[in-house]
Amino acid sequence: MLQLQYFLILAAALFCIGIYGLVTSRNAVRVLMSIELMLNAVNLNLMGFSNYIDPVEIKGQVFTVFVIAIAAAEAAVGLAIVLSIYRNRDTVDMEQFNLLKW
Amino acid sequence: MEIAEGVRLVTFGILSFLMLGAALGVVLFANIVYSAFLLGGVFISMAGTYILLNADFVSAAQILVYVGAINVLILFAIMLVNKREDFKPLKNGWLRQGSIALICAGIFTLLSTVSIATPWKISTTTPLASSIVPLAKHFFTDFLLPFELASILLLMAMVGAIILARRDFIPDNISGETSTQDSLTLPERPRELAGIEK
What we know:
Oligomer: heterodimer
Largest interface: A-B, 75 and 84 residues
Largest sheet of chain B: none
């Protein structure tokens, strides 16, 4: 029988993969992809709680829809920033975005 | 939905295997185009998991928004910044990767221990047949203000993305002779297109 814990553990694994990619990847676009992975893990948590704890007032699904909307806005702005930095620095290497480093 | 428990369990196993494999591919592949397509695989298997959780509307929205919009946007961004460059290896790079892998394993252990050890108050009522009508009631009664604010946020993000991704504005534009034919176009610096390195 499917239980809530399976979904929570799956979401935790996805979130940890997202953190690993966020810290270790050098390409700026891949960093944005890792952020999308982490947002999806949070969505999976919300949906699991919504189905197993609150199946009548499905407020978790409402929050998931809001998170999807915020993620779309974040992806658009983030990719625009990456494009702008690429025009300035002519690279997408995260280690060379050191304009603010003292 | 009336799906047998065994079928649900097997489906969950297949979907989680696909999801974790594709997520590892997103993080670990060297070619970023493969990563972008595998990210679409992660999103699609996530939509399947939502169907297992009795959420039909959110599953469709996941496919429409993530696979149809965000993944295509990421592919366009990869195409626009497509420059073959070999990243110089960092000194002590293995130390950073090993330590962050340890930290991630620790976070995963902590989260899974918490989710197993906590006594969740599982509700025993049967889930609704369709989630669309309760979702719409939420959106237009008690979540009306966040729902409208989300549209304003999307508009702000769209304008901000356009402003950020435009080419530079010319501040010392000659103000005397404003030609009439480009009164509807934003002034921007002419820039030669970057050639494709062969």
